[in-house]
Amino acid sequence: MAEALNVTIEPEDIEISHKLKHGRGIIVKFCNHKTKSKLYRERTKLKDVRISDLFPSYPSTGQQQQRVFTHESLTAYRRTIVDEANKRRRDGTFFSVWTLDGKIIVKTSPDGSPIRIFSEEDLDNL
């Protein structure tokens, strides 16, 4: 994935990694916050990347191949807020929703300023 994003990551940059249950992904803990941030900042380039692009032997069955994505591991409380914000994004209330270093950020329009969200009440007040 790092190669697809043109980010250099060496084996010593990763403290530990393992597969999640039921083959639903891989979790990685980086030794250095800067390395994680470099990779995470470039994640928007993954929109058009499929698993079969990175691993040609991966079966590409079905109409839509599986996309590659990355996201932060959030607390249950913050995950709930992000889920609610994404629901509102799909409804058209927000233009975009993302997290960065555990902070939840939304934009209400393409030209709007990013707004940091601390609670569901903040979402209601927008």
Helix content: 25-40%
What is the number of independent domains?
A: 2
How many angstroms does the end-to-end distance come to? 35 Å
Mean pLDDT metric: 86
> Largest sheet, if any?
3 strands, antiparallel
Shape: globular
- Radius of gyration, in angstroms, nearest whole number: 16 Å
Structural class: alpha+beta
Number of helices: 4
Q: What would you say this structure looks like, in words?
A:
The structure is a single chain. Helices cover 27% and strands 19% of the residues. The protein is α+β, with helices and mostly antiparallel strands and 126 residues long. The strands form two sheets. It has a three-stranded antiparallel beta sheet. Strands 1-2 form a two-stranded antiparallel sheet. It is globular, with a radius of gyration of 16 Å. The protein starts with 13 loop residues before the first strand and ends with a helix. The model has no long low-confidence stretch (mean pLDDT 86).
